[in-house]
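Apologies for my clumsy wording, but can you show me some protein sequence, whichever is easiest, together with the matching structure tokens, please?
=====
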Amino acid sequence: MGELPGRREEGRLPAAASSRAQMPAQTTPEQAASSTADFLYFLAGDAQLDPQGSAHLALIRDLLEPFAAGRTNQALTVICQRVAALMGVPRCSLCLWDEPSGCLVLAAQAGPSGALFPAQPAFPTSPECLPDWVREMERLGSSMAPPRPSRLQRRRRRARSFPDTTSPPWDAYPVLGIPLSAAGRAIGFLFCVGIGESSAFTERHIRLGNILAATLAPAIGAAWANRRDPPVDTADVRSARLALSGSLDPDEVLQIVTDMARERLGAQVCVALSFQDAHSFRVCVAAEWENAEVGIDLTGDGLASQALRLGRPVWIPDRVRPPRILPREIATRVPLRAGIAVPLREGDRVTGAILAYHSLSRDYSAEEVHLLASLAARAGAALRNCALYEHQRLMTETVRRALAPRLPPAIEGVDVGHLYLPKADQIGGDHYDLIPLGGGRLGIAMGDVAGSGLRAAIHTTMARYMARAFAFETPRPGTILQKLNEAICTEGHSEVFLTLFCGVLHSSGRLHYANGAHPYPILRRAGRSAPLFLETTGTVVGVIPDQHYDEREVRLHSGDILLLYTDGVTEAEHGGDLFGFERLEAAVQEWQGDHPQELVDHIARRVREFAGGRIRDDLALLAIRWR
């Protein structure tokens, strides 16, 4: 390539540009590459470079067009081929940072392979393994060639936890490194590899590398971040996702991960550990032998401690410090030589690690590191779900115990049976209450707040204690419902409404009641077969202001039982059919017991049998027998 002037004349394209625009059909790829390189170099020397210029885009569009097909690997390979042609070198390798593993991986390459050029450089590698000139190049953000190609650059200053590279190209041949940055962060490097020490790179090549980086890095970064063909077997990732998503048990999650890691990597031992707090952690082991104990040393400079301390994958290809294995004859029979560890993370915090050990010395490929890092990412997400579920379960259980209906231990003149069954692992809106009001009076309430969960529980508590307060103010059930309705409507919570039965039982056996759209209570007369249903006397509570609730009166005789329930009983479902009032009435009639608790248990058993054991809604029962 001949030297071109550093600036272009106003309103004119350089000769290279015009020749490119008028290129004959028989132009060879080498001629096209030379013309494009001349033009890019011309632009690189122009202080007033406009990267959006039409001539610039026309000459480099062939470098970006492969990404349009969406096949990232193929597009990156084409990039390597064309960069090698532009630079006039036989070999170009594109190495990009892999975020899950924190390693530099070989994304694509073009050129010959064999004794002169290894088929694949020794990747993956870590930032500490890069030569000094590569790290300096990344820091400066500018293309750079090493002072001279020499294997003396490979000084043994690396920790044993990093791969022992064999023949990286920058240690044996003339190499030009081109740093790539997109969206304000480094994404990797383009390495152009020459032949022999005589083919050293010049300042002209470095300037051309810089303009190539500015042109190509955004497209490469976007394609790499959204690649459809990652270097990991998608079937492995998919199976890991499916296996882990179905478990909410952290021990089961760790066991699944260790089993999958051992199977995929062909390891003799895999260990997964997850910290519960600063002083305790879970450990799960998968090994090719049974009935063995494996202990992991988390101190010193071992494999696990390095992964936990550094927060990235580490591996030792030979003479790894093995875990402690009992019985000892197993460790003697199957010595462990190589090992790899990846951290489990929760955001920026390291919460554990996955370790795999092999009995033979070996290097670990980019695909293996990426696979184990992907398993760790899936396991970390699954463990977070387990922790969130356990936190929610404990919170729900605590609130449920705090809000569970509490009845007086003994009430003069009556026997009581009751049952409350909320939805599985949820807090319900069903509630009941017995309130000694003094003067031989007993307040009775059974309600159902719309909805379920924590919000319904809060509204249930609010309604329960307001109803209690109004009951002490007035002995009239209709007035209690009216005041409660006004209080809720005044608060303006349109989503809060409830059905509520409210009654006052006097020492004489008279029951005054008002029913705000709650399912009809049943009065089972002693010695009579047909039960009596106590009808509704008003609408739901908390929807329409200025509501009036009529009152009714009924007298209880010795042995009579008043049964109250929520719609979780009558709306229990099986095959689209509801349990309903008729089955409930039949269950009350067929019962031949004595104590009201037996009646409650009998009805609950009938509902479970009808629903096949699956109760989908809150269920509450309260039975009161007048002596």
